[in-house]
Amino acid sequence: MTKYILLIDDEDDIREVAQITLEYLLAWRVITASSGQEGLFLAREEQPDAILLDVMMPEWDGLMTFQKLLADPKTQHIPVILLTAQVQTHQHRKFAELGVSGVITKPFDPLSLGNLVTQILDGGRV
């Protein structure tokens, strides 16, 4: 099934690699944002199936962006998967307690990104 993904990350390389991978390998539709503010706007307007959200960003970091997504009735239903270089188990537990759908550790293998996203959206934790 074709998915519609919003990728929010301030790093051009990450956005480009993830978008190319998901679009060309899986034929998913991917839109990108380079900031939390832009991502919140696109999430409200576009209503993607899921959001991949970088944790470490300037201005609004991923957790602030996630809180704003949760506070907005137009976006609170959209599953959010965090992208983070933070690999400590206690941090992943904290993210789960906040209500994120899952966590993908950076750097990720571009070829397995789609499988990880699908696994998380199907109810599994990564």
UniProtKB/TrEMBL annotation:
Keywords: Phosphoprotein. SUPFAM superfamilies: CheY-like. SMART domains: REC. Pfam families: Response_reg. The modification 4-aspartylphosphate is found at D54. The keyword Phosphoprotein applies. CDD domains: REC_RR468-like. GO terms for biological process: phosphorelay signal transduction system. Gene3D superfamilies: 3.40.50.2300. Residues 4-121 form the Response regulatory domain. PANTHER family: CHEY SUBFAMILY, STRESS RESPONSE REGULATOR PROTEIN 1. This is Response regulator.
